């Protein structure tokens, strides 16, 4: 993200506005980044290997893209993100917890 949009995210983040994160997750930028991370993971959970439901409707699950850290939020690197199924994502948050 660059320009005015980036400045808006930064201002919201500095203000401590919780809604900025949820708004960010609805942004075009995040949707594109999420799609890139899932493709890089070959549409599989990086922990257990379950496949995304859009690639196998019978056996698949909806994959989440987990932020390993929030240091570069809205400017993430691929290494800041991880594709996880719902169960592994919940386990990851319990570990961090």
Q: How do the helices and strands line up, and which of them pair or pack?
A:
Elements: H1 3-15, H2 19-25, H3 28-40, E1 64-67, E2 81-84, H4 86-96
Antiparallel strand pairs: 1-2
Give the neighbour order of strands across the main sheet: 1-2
Distance between the termini: 29 Å
Mean pLDDT: 81
- Radius of gyration, CA atoms, in whole angstroms: 14 Å
Describe this protein's structure.
This protein has 97 residues and is mostly helical. Helices cover 45% and strands 8% of the residues. A two-stranded antiparallel sheet has the order 1-2. The N and C termini lie far apart (29 Å).
Descriptors:
2 strands; 45% helix; mainly alpha; two-stranded antiparallel sheet
Please sum up the structure shown.
By secondary structure, the chain is mostly helical.
């Amino acid at each position: 993200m660059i320009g005015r949009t980036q400045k808006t995210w930064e201002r919201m983040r500095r203000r401590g506005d919780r809604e900025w994160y949820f708004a960010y997750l609805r942004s075009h930028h995040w949707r594109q980044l999420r799609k890139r991370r899932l493709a890089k993971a070959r549409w599989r959970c990086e922990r257990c290997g379950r496949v995304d439901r859009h690639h196998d409707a019978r056996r698949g699950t909806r994959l989440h893209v987990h932020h390993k850290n929030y240091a570069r939020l809205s400017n993430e690197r691929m290494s800041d993100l991880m594709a996880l199924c719902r169960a592994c994502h919940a386990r990851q948050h319990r570990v961090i917890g």
